[in-house]
């Protein structure tokens, strides 16, 4: 009888260990998938609120904080945001991470220079607004200039933010989102091949008159 009970207990122990292993594996897979979302750009307020509903343990919340520090957020924290996060049971360390990792400011630190080229003269004022908005968050944006050899208008987006290294896609996306909010001007992120030496340099090209919305 005792032998049977010992065997049963041993099987239960093995079963529990297998279940724990599977759960641990699935959790690590979820974490990996979540981490890969950084490639899509910085976190949104809605994305953080949804994650707070899913992640309830201290380990989960620390993972969120680490991801926010790595990827940044696409909004500047307001008092309203703080209240909303508190309602979603966010602790101070997470709110602090959101406050300190506004993506455009965070990403500007890795940009050596932003060149602003303007083809139509009547868009110079809009180009200066873009420059001022970028300088506001610490980006090294140069004064707008008219290029000596403007590109072929038919084969270019009307307003584009060019980047020359694929790793800078998230930077371009964050900055275009920021400029849309600040200036109401929509730029199209565009990757330029064969110019890897220009990593750290972004170019904003305005080759058509900006239409007022």
Kindly describe this structure.
The protein is of the alpha/beta class and about 210 residues long. The protein has three domains: about 1-40; about 40-100, no CATH class; about 105-205, 2-Layer Sandwich (Alpha-Beta Plaits). It contains eight helices and four strands; from the N terminus they run ααααααβαβαββ. The protein has helices at about 1-35, 45-55, 60-70, 80-85, 90-100, 105-110, 125-135, 170-185; strands at about 115-120, 160-165, 190, 200-205. A four-stranded mixed beta sheet has the order 1-4-2-3, with helices on one face. It starts with a helix and ends in a 7-residue tail after the last strand.
Per DSSP, the total helix count is 8
| Largest sheet: spatial strand order | 1-4-2-3
What is the CATH topology classification name of the largest domain? Answer: Alpha-Beta Plaits
What count of structural domains? 3
Specify the CATH class of the largest domain. Answer: Alpha Beta
Helix content: 40-55%
Characterize the main sheet. Answer: 4 strands, mixed
Shape: elongated
Structural class: alpha/beta
Task: List its salient traits.
Alpha-Beta Plaits, 4 strands, single chain, 213 residues, 52% helix, alpha/beta, elongated, 3 domains, 4-stranded mixed beta sheet
Furnish the topology, listing elements before pairings:
Blueprint: H1 2-36, H2 45-54, H3 58-71, H4 79-87, H5 92-100, H6 103-108, E1 113-118, H7 124-136, E2 159-163, H8 169-183, E3 188-191, E4 201-206
Parallel strand pairs: 1-4, 2-3
Antiparallel strand pairs: 2-4
